[in-house]
Amino acid sequence: MPKRILIGTVTSDKTEKTVTVLVERKVKHPLYGKIIRRSKKYHAHDEANEYKIGDTVRIEETRPMSKTKTWQVIERVVAGGTQAVEADLDVAEAGN
Where are the beta strands (DSSP E) in the chain? Predict the structure, then answer.
């Protein structure tokens, strides 16, 4: 049986060798037909503690590693989120 592969965003990296990944999917409402977002969080194994909050990662289903952890991070798709950005703004002072 092939292993499932999902893409999601890291929402927590506080635990040792584990990251929490939020995977969102879009489904059509069965009665009204509107497209709605459904999300689920997965615990994934991160051996080197290299993935941080905001990273978009690809996870793969694997053998159970603990009670809740049955996924493993394969690779980083997009580095993300919580980096400081320096703004270079020129603000003109209003004369009195």
Answer: 5-12, 18-28, 35-45, 56-61, 69-78
Taking 3-state DSSP, the helix, strand and coil percentages for the chain, each rounded to the nearest 5, stand at: 0, 50, 50
Show the domain range for 27. 5-78
Please state the domain count of the chain.
Answer: 1
Radius of gyration of the chain (CA): 19
Q: Mind listing the pLDDT tens digit for each residue in 34-67? A: 999 999 999 999 999 999 999 999 999 999 999 9
Judge whether 7 and 57 are in contact, CB under 8 Å: yes
Q: Is residue 85 part of a domain?
A: no
| CATH code of 18's domain | 2.40.50.140
Amino acid at 92: A
Q: How far apart are CA 63 and CA 66, in angstroms?
A: 9
Chain-centre distance for alpha carbon 77 = 10
